[in-house]
Design brief:
single chain; 350 residues; alpha/beta; TIM Barrel; 3 domains; 5-stranded mixed β-sheet; 3-stranded parallel β-sheet; 12% strand; globular
Amino acid sequence: MKNKYIDMHTHTNHSDGSSSVENSLRKAEQLKLDMISISDHNTVSAYDEIKKNNIRSLYNGKIVPGVEITTTYNGEVIEVLGYGFDIQKMQDLLYQNVYSFYDKQILESKLNLVIFEKYGVYFSPEFIEKMTKHPEELFNPNKTSSRKAFLDEMKRYSRNSKFFNSPKQMEEITVRDFTRNFVYNPKSTLYVDQSPLYPSLDRTIEMIHSAGGIAFLAHLYEYSPTIAENLENITSNYQLDGIECYYATFTKEQSNFLEEYCKRHNLYKSCGSDFHGYEVKPNNHMGLGTEGKKMDKSIISEWIDKVNNILLPISNRQKFIESIKIENTYSVNKQNAESERVEKREDIEL
């Protein structure tokens, strides 16, 4: 039997990805993936675009509704993936329980500034004024967090090296490591408790379940070592259904351990690339998980047939109808653009 490959963890520009929904669907089709999930951060708006823009026909595989909800465990930021839920129910729950991407970034920037200044981190007066009154001048809250802006400002002043292991570490640290090992890590010198910004872990899992979905702990080894050390406590005390066992940055040994852990604890397995588009995460390639290997559909065989809400491939007849709609939209846009050019030429001539 021919292998069927999948990717259950991808992002688009509806959260922090650079890939449009249309480009993601085209990419999945190009790779001949049998199934994907678009699991944007704290939003399911990509599915509205699929429905409204008549682009479902671009991909012939199945699409499992997904979302990656940010939460905290013992004060540290983690993420939970939800799959197979009713999209409208999830949309309503997210609206009620989660800040919009923009609002969250603005609130986080204010929280970071207060805590960093409390610790004694030095920032220029100009930086403080902008971050307080005009944060959009330092970062784009529609697409990114403020953490890179803070890190870049810290690096400008050698006196801030005392918050790191060495001046060299401060100079070379990446935003990812700064985030996971300092800002989110309760044991670090620059820890910021982010829990006021997110729903609790219990509430996050409850949201997914009440919308008819299944909840998975995302990319365990992307957090500080504290989370992996507490895996037993997390899975024993919270109603998670499974763990993301195969992931782009995992080693084979890490995936093997998680797979065995799931077997011992009667938990489901999932897998994903965490594709964001190559402008954001150039090393996370759609369709490739642990150690750059393709991910077989058998990984999710224990639970995927229990999911009720899956976007199935559309029929050839519907594809034809959608292709006409897409072509008509293109023609109308082209005609409108041409009309504008004609009007501009007429205005110039006058």
